[in-house]
Design a protein that fits this description.
There is one protein chain. The chain is of the alpha/beta class and 395 residues long. The chain has ten helices and 20 strands. It folds into three domains: 64 residues, Roll (Archaeosine Trna-guanine Transglycosylase, Chain: A, domain 4); 105 residues, 2-Layer Sandwich (Transcription Regulator spoIIAA), CATH 3.30.750.80; 190 residues, Rossmann fold. The chain is globular. The chain starts with 6 loop residues before the first strand and ends with a strand. The chain binds S-adenosyl-L-homocysteine. S-adenosyl-L-homocysteine binds next to helix 6, strand 15 and helix 8.
C-alpha cells in the first residue's frame, strides 16, 4: 500500500459473505472503521485477520454500510471502471431493442453498479441514484450513458425513501435535455404513453414485458379481468392478443384515464370496461353477481414492503387469489404476481396453493413467472429478485 486509505475491518467470521461475492457489508458485521471515510468514499474492506476482501463504497448511516465495487485487490475503482460497466450493461440489452423501446438498461447490483437503475423509453433515459456509492460518479455515469446510448435527454427519478435509507437528500429533475414530455413507447406492436415525471417507478412496469407477452399469446377468444391494471399494460396486451372482452380495475383515476387513452392510441375498436374501485370489493361483488372470466391477471402493489409485513401480505394475496380462482370458468387462466421482495417464490406458491384448496377448485401450474431478462438477478445477490408469479389453469 502506498497511501493510507480508509479501512473497514470486519468482525471475526463476518468475511464469509464477501468471500462468496455477496456485495453488501451490513453495519453489524463491522468491527472498526479506520480513517474518516465520507459518504460514497471508497474503502478497503478487510477480514478480522487483515486480509483483503473488497473495495467498497462507504455509506455512513445506512444499515448496508458499504457496497462492494470490486473483489479484486489490484482493480482500480475509477471513472474508467464505472464507464466500462455502464457500457457493458447497455450492450447486454442490445438484442431487446428490436421488440420494444422500453428497456431497463442498468439494474443495480446485477450489473455491478450497486444502487443505480437506468431505464430507457425511446430516446429518454430515466435514472435512479439510490446508494451513497453512486453519488460521486453521477457525471461519469451521465457521460457514459450518453456515449453508450446516444440519448440526450436524461431525467432523474430517484426513490426518496431509498435515498433516505442511504442518508441522501431527495433528488429529482432533468439532468440533461430539460423538462421531459410524455414519451410514446412500443412493445410488440402495442403503443403506450409513459410519463416519466409522474408515472409509477420510472413511468412504466417494464419488468412485466415477458408476462404481457404471455398474456397476449393466451388471450384469443377469452373474457379478461385485469386487476390492479394501472395504465392498462396487461389489458392492452390481451386485446392485442384477441381477447373478446376486457374489464380492468384500479383505485387510481389518473391511471385509468391513461389506460383509456392507451386504448384509443392503439385504435382498438370496441372499448373496454375500466372500473375505478378497490379490487378486494370488486372481486367480492363479481362473485355475488355470478360473473365469470376466462383469463384473470392479479398484479397488486407490494403487499409486504418488508419481512415484518409477511403475514398480513400472505392473507391479502390469499384472499384475492381465492376469489379470482372462483371467478374463473373451467379452463380459465390465472396470471398471479407478487412484487414483494420479502415474499419468496416458494412462499408465494404455498399461499396460492392454499387459495386453490380453499376455493374448492382444482388447478394446474403451467409456468413460474419472473421479471424480464433486462431485470437479471446476480446469483450471489438473491435480494435482487423481487417479481415472481404463477400461471395457473383452473380445471
Ligand atoms: N399491473 C400494472 C401494475 C400494477 S401497480 C401494470 O402492469 O402496469 C399497482 C396498481 O394497483 C396501482 O395502479 C394502484 O393504483 C393499484 N391499487 C393499489 N391498491 C389497490 C386496490 N386495493 N384496489 C385497486 N387498485 C389498487
Amino acid at each position: 500500500m502506498t497511501r493510507t486509505e480508509p479501512l473497514l475491518k470486519l468482525k471475526p467470521g463476518k468475511e464469509k459473505s464477501l468471500r462468496r461475492r455477496h456485495p453488501w457489508v451490513y453495519a453489524m458485521a463491522i468491527d472498526r472503521v479506520i480513517g474518516h471515510p465520507a459518504s460514497g468514499d471508497i474503502v478497503r474492506v478487510v477480514g478480522a485477520d487483515g486480509s483483503f476482501l473488497a473495495w467498497a463504497a462507504f455509506s455512513p448511516t445506512s444499515m448496508i454500510r458499504a457496497r462492494a465495487w470490486s473483489f479484486l485487490e489490484h482493480e482500480q475503482v475509477d471513472a474508467a471502471l464505472i464507464t466500462a460497466r455502464v457500457a457493458a450493461a447497455v450492450a447486454r440489452r442490445q438484442s431487446l431493442s428490436t421488440e420494444t423501446t422500453a428497456v431497463r438498461l442498468v439494474f443495480g447490483e446485477a450489473d455491478a453498479l450497486p444502487g443505480l437503475v437506468v431505464d430507457r423509453y425511446g430516446d429518454q433515459l430515466v435514472v435512479q441514484c439510490q446508494s451513497a456509492g453512486i453519488e460521486p460518479w453521477r457525471e461519469v455515469i451521465i457521460e457514459a450513458l450518453t456515449a453508450a446510448t446516444g440519448c440526450r435527454a436524461i431525467y432523474e427519478r430517484s426513490d426518496a425513501a431509498a435515498r433516505e435509507r442511504e442518508g441522501l437528500a431527495p433528488s429529482e429533475g432533468p439532468l440533461r435535455g430539460g423538462e421531459p414530455t410524455p414519451v410514446l413507447v412500443t412493445e410488440e406492436g402495442v403503443r403506450y404513453r409513459v410519463d416519466v415525471v409522474t408515472g409509477h417507478k420510472t413511468g412504466f412496469y417494464i419488468d412485466q414485458r415477458d408476462n404481457r407477452s404471455l398474456v397476449r399469446a393466451n388471450a384469443a377468444g377469452r373474457r379478461v379481468l385485469n386487476c390492479f391494471c394501472y395504465t392498462g399494460g396487461f389489458t392492452l396486451a390481451a386485446r392485442q392478443g384477441g381477447a373478446i372482452e376486457a374489464t380492468s380495475v384500479d383505485s387510481s383515476a389518473e391511471a385509468l384515464a391513461m389506460a383509456a387513452d392507451h386504448e384509443k392510441l392503439n385504435g382498438f375498436e370496441t372499448s373496454s370496461t375500466w372500473l375505478q374501485a378497490n379490487v378486494f370489493d370488486t372481486l367480492k361483488a363479481m362473485l355475488a353477481e355470478g360473473r365469470q372470466f376466462d383469463l384473470i391477471v392479479l398484479d397488486p402493489p407490494k403487499f409486504a414492503p418488508s419481512a415484518h409485513h409477511i403475514d398480513r401480505a400472505a392473507r391479502a394475496y390469499k384472499e384475492i387469489n381465492l376469489k379470482a380462482l372462483r371467478l374463473l370458468a373451467p379452463g380459465g387462466l390465472l396470471f398471479t404476481f407478487s412484487c414483494s421482495g420479502a415474499v419468496s417464490l416458494d412462499l408465494f406458491q404455498k399461499i396460492i396453493a392454499g387459495a386453490v384448496f380453499d376455493a374448492g377448485v382444482d388447478a394446474q401450474m403451467l409456468k413460474r413467472l419472473a421479471a424480464g431478462v433486462d431485470h437479471p438477478m446476480l446469483m450471489t445477490h438473491p435480494e435482487g429478485e423481487y417479481l415472481k408469479g404463477l400461471m395457473l389453469r383452473r380445471m
